[in-house]
Write the structure tokens for this entry.
Amino acid sequence: MNIVLATRNKKKVEEIKRIVAGMPISLYTLDDFPECPEVEEDGKTFEDNAAKKAKAVSDYTKMPALADDSGLEVYALNGEPGVLSARYAGENTDDRKNLEKLLNEMRLVPDGIRGARFACCIALAFPDGMAETFMGYSEGSIGKGPKGSNGFGYDPVFYPAGCKKTFAEMADAEKDSLSHRGAALKKLHEYLKGRK
Ligand code: IMP
């Protein structure tokens, strides 16, 4: 199946391409459709945003489109930053500022209650208007300072459950086997196998 990847985040494109490498999918990206309009992520849930992005790109390209909406939910912060993960420190922010804000918000939170999870919704929308969504989670905890330089976003402070390394200290394959995006894409894989 030919699918357009509805994201301009280069790191996500890399990760998704890597994880779907063995699947029956030929991936196009928005670089193949430079005029495709931006979609505002104003949904209250990861599902809302992922489905909105996938549908908009499928409408525009007339091809099946796959979108990812993901983020970090920190239990001691009542699920923040959640759907606002990319904009946690404001509108014109970046990964470093978001990470600084998170560590600052967590400075008084003791060990033992620093639990968090990454969540990822993958949406696949078809030109006939149909859409499917697949959720994946990765449970873990937030460290006291950044460690490692791989990956992106909050990877340097996220320790997956049972691991002594952050996502940013892991090789790609190790992160993929534990990540929320890997889990959601595994469900997509099962779905695509069932459609054949
Ligand atoms: P969005 O899905 O484009 O709205 O952005 C999700 C945001 O959540 C990213 O900008 C990161 O800050 C964070 N995020 C999502 N997935 C990951 C991940 O695998 N590692 C680290 N941060 C992530």
